[in-house]
């Protein structure tokens, strides 16, 4: 008991030190922003922050806009956003020397002089990747992840790391070190997770381009909640070397690294920059597939599958309306829309996704928390992972008749191979001769703390991790008074405890953004982005 107390005291001491360092980081950001303002009173940061990424990179590459102006404008805005939403964990001090040295070379990279934000779990040399665990403090990465190495070779300037939920296995965004990240559109709502710091920072305009990871929706949910765009590529399209996983070893639900931004064209430019020889040479497991500009730039009409519900998580009225309105707009623009029926969704969610993530009964997951300072919002998930097998067996038998299957799946050891189900899904897709798919993504943003009670609500996003399809989100509408009125009759597909909590979480959301999800077949990121661009345009 004494040893345990001493360990906890040592961890709290590390947390306090990290918080003091965080304060120093923000003080340095303020110094940079104020110093620039005094030195360049005639420069309007808003005019810089309002530039799209193609416009910004053009000005940086031709020398008409100094990198210092861009860097300081974004540092000032990022400081404002983290004070409002608590989204930044670390400021990268050496980034200042990068912009001061940044003179356009003869062949500047595609992202020359662009400040970019990086999720906590992606290694940056000299900085911690804590994933919300105090025991990971003061363990700086020995080298950059492959993603960060390629970004730097393309001229980008990583300048901040952003907040995540403890363990990453949550779509809220809170941990014992840095606290809760809030949604920039409404502070009582979560920014989403696990790339929630990125969602809040980019949603509030404090970063033009950021990078996160996605295991179940960790890019797409924060983007949808914060009113921005994100792309989850096929799992191995971008290198994951040097990224930290919440559940190491599992392969049934495929994680991916991807970009987040306010506009689809920013996502596309970042993918063009990353899919280069540097990426393929630094990680030979990444297939050498350069960005296909012809596919992305095509304007030919698309054949689009769509569904309004996955028959597992009842969509909010706004989610359903978003898909319906988008379907009509796409049809009016000359595209063909084809109804798609999801078959056996319960099997995908419980047998492939949940059992795949926790195939060892949750022992790998629970080991990460041994001796740790634990965030309370993991609740049931952590308790079940720590429960002895014989109790899990009894609980599985008892709960099976009364639940939708989530408890039983969490209590069952052993993963099932998703390949056969993936091939069946693709066969159904090809029988309809589809190019892409339009479907819902969870929204609007839920109140802080609700994701811990509603892990089952990730069904719309985790499906495409299980299938390993590229999927992106684009904001298309906001919650209306009519949507709010319609919510009064919301029952859910199962009319159970989770459906009642979800209905309560959706309420009081007038004005909040809601997105749609755009999906393509594996390795067709360019087609997915082309579809997202069309949705954004319409």
From TrEMBL:
<dbReference type="GO" id="GO:0017064">
    <property type="term" value="F:fatty acid amide hydrolase activity"/>
</dbReference>
<dbReference type="Pfam" id="PF01425">
    <property type="entry name" value="Amidase"/>
</dbReference>
<dbReference type="InterPro" id="IPR052096">
    <property type="entry name" value="Endocannabinoid_amidase"/>
</dbReference>
<keyword id="KW-0443">Lipid metabolism</keyword>
<feature type="domain" description="Amidase">
    <location>
        <begin position="73"/>
        <end position="529"/>
    </location>
</feature>
<keyword id="KW-0442">Lipid degradation</keyword>
<dbReference type="InterPro" id="IPR036928">
    <property type="entry name" value="AS_sf"/>
</dbReference>
<dbReference type="GO" id="GO:0004040">
    <property type="term" value="F:amidase activity"/>
</dbReference>
<keyword id="KW-0597">Phosphoprotein</keyword>
<dbReference type="InterPro" id="IPR020556">
    <property type="entry name" value="Amidase_CS"/>
</dbReference>
<protein>
    <recommendedName>
        <fullName>Fatty-acid amide hydrolase 1</fullName>
        <ecNumber>3.5.1.99</ecNumber>
    </recommendedName>
</protein>
<keyword id="KW-0378">Hydrolase</keyword>
<feature type="active site" description="Charge relay system">
    <location>
        <position position="119"/>
    </location>
</feature>
<dbReference type="GO" id="GO:0009062">
    <property type="term" value="P:fatty acid catabolic process"/>
</dbReference>
<comment type="similarity">
    <text>Belongs to the amidase family.</text>
</comment>
<feature type="active site" description="Charge relay system">
    <location>
        <position position="194"/>
    </location>
</feature>
<dbReference type="InterPro" id="IPR023631">
    <property type="entry name" value="Amidase_dom"/>
</dbReference>
<feature type="active site" description="Acyl-ester intermediate">
    <location>
        <position position="218"/>
    </location>
</feature>
